[in-house]
Design goal:
With 415 residues, the protein is α/β, with parallel strands linked by helices. It has 16 helices and 15 strands. The longest helix is centred in the C-terminal third of the chain and has 23 residues. Bound molecules: pyridoxal-5'-phosphate (PLP).
């Protein structure tokens, strides 16, 4: 990776940048929301477009000199429309949270009501947590995961909706291993005259490749991140029907943001082009196959999975039944020492704290990018369980770490 200009100016930052490339090469990124963008995407993100002010939209900017900014944004929009089949796309949100903010600003007034999944059950801060602007600006009620099945409690959602009369219902989650029933949520929203926002942040790439049902054409609004299962660099996106296009565009700019990050929009355009290929479809299918293999092997090794398995790119394991005295953080830090980077996560019916919860969340998008198949993923599952069983045994952790480094060398990144 080229960091020679940075090195001339700022060796300290250059060291950190090359250290990060080495870290990504020598560890397995199994944080379910992470991935490895291509060098083409990163080159676009590091381009001269970072210098350009382009407030407004293609063809109607508040600044001169936007011809190339227009080209890039039009390409990103066109490709997004092809990928997800949306009528209207806004590619300017700086990230997934800003995409959600754009929808709220477009459709809600302060004090209006949001009905969303509880954060500790797999929701997202931007769905109305009290520490987030959404929770501070709107009135929020939450629905839950059925602790028996591990699936969204749609009946519970319906009765809360009847009672609470929300202005918008949010579906789409951060730690949910199953297909979301978009139509079911839409019916519930229709029944109480609420909008429906489907937040596909995690599964944007799976939906684009057709390996997860799409909410586009069902939900009123679809938001996403562009750096998770789709490898288009850090950013956000909003999709909606034409009737909401104006409101959404005005909410993003000037409502919530100033100048768009045109270099990131260039990254989105390049990543979306890559995602239109047959290779990407194969990648998305393999990501799900690997998650299925991971889930099966973890279960064979005695772990309890929320919902019993997965339909998508992630698994959520509840450690309490098999390892009642081991916390998510115990496992997170031991696995990090062994070079497997994932996160401790709350589980439905959590009995510990959000800082040291009872679960672990593992995703396959990034290891699939570096070429892992089911066989290699099953080996990773075995390594994970060895560490879960022996998280305080330094010899076992070091032994696992050695094998992880061999696997990393066998599946190189950024050659
Ligand atoms: C990741 C995520 C987001 C967006 O996060 P950003 O870090 O702002 O891109 C939004 N919603 C859900 C459900 C997510 O998982």
């Amino acid at each position: 990776m080229h960091d020679s200009h940075v090195r001339d100016v700022d060796p300290a930052v250059a060291d950190a940048l090359s250290g990060e490339v080495q870290r990504q090469q020598n560890t397995l990124a199994m944080i379910a929301s992470e991935n490895h963008a291509s060098e083409a995407v990163m080159e676009a993100q590091g381009s001269a477009l970072t210098n350009k002010y382009a407030e407004g939209y293609p063809g109607s900017r508040y600044y001169a000199g936007c011809e190339y900014a227009d080209d890039v944004e039009e390409l990103a929009i066109e490709r997004a429309k092809q990928l997800w089949g949306a009528a209207h796309v806004n590619v300017q949100p700086h990230s997934g949270s800003q995409a959600n903010m754009g929808v709220y600003l477009a459709m809600l007034d302060p004090g209006d009501k949001i009905l969303s999944l509880d954060l500790t059950h797999g929701g997202h801060l931007s769905h109305g947590h009290p520490a987030n602007f959404a929770g501070q600006t709107y009135e929020v009620e939450q629905y839950e995961i059925d602790p028996e099945t591990g699936y969204v409690d749609y009946d519970g959602l319906e009765s809360i909706a009847d009672e609470f009369e929300p202005d918008i219902i949010v579906s789409g989650y951060s730690a949910y291993p199953r297909e979301v029933e978009w139509e079911r949520v839409q019916e519930i929203a229709d029944g109480v005259d609420a909008y429906h926002l489907a937040d596909i942040a995690h599964i944007t790439g799976l939906v684009a490749a057709g390996v997860h049902d799409s909410p586009v054409g069902i939900a009123d609004f679809v938001t996403g991140s562009t750096h998770k299962t789709i490898r288009a660099g850090r950013g956000g996106i909003i999709m909606c029907e034409e009737e909401y296009a104006d409101a959404v565009d005005k909410a993003v700019f000037p409502g919530a943001q100033g100048g768009p990050l045109m270099h990131n929009i260039a990254g989105k355009a390049v990543g979306f082009k890559e995602a239109l290929s047959a290779e990407f479809e194969a990648y998305a299918e393999q990501t799900v196959r690997n998650a299925t293999a991971l889930a099966e092997r973890l279960r064979e090794n005695g772990l309890t999975l929320v919902s019993g398995g997965t339909d998508n790119h992630l698994v959520l394991a509840d450690l309490r039944p098999s390892h009642p005295d081991t916390t998510g953080k115990d496992v997170e830090s031991a696995l990090e020492s062994a070079g497997i980077v994932m996160n401790a996560n709350t589980v439905p019916g959590e009995t510990r704290s959000a800082f040291d919860p009872s679960g672990i969340r593992l995703g396959t998008p990034a290891i699939t990018t570096r070429g892992f198949d089911e066989e290699a993923t099953r080996e990773v599952a075995d390594l994970v369980v060895r560490v879960v069983d022996n998280y305080d045994d330094e010899t076992v952790v070091a032994d696992v770490g050695e094998r992880v480094r061999e696997l990393c060398a066998a599946f190189p990144l950024y050659e």
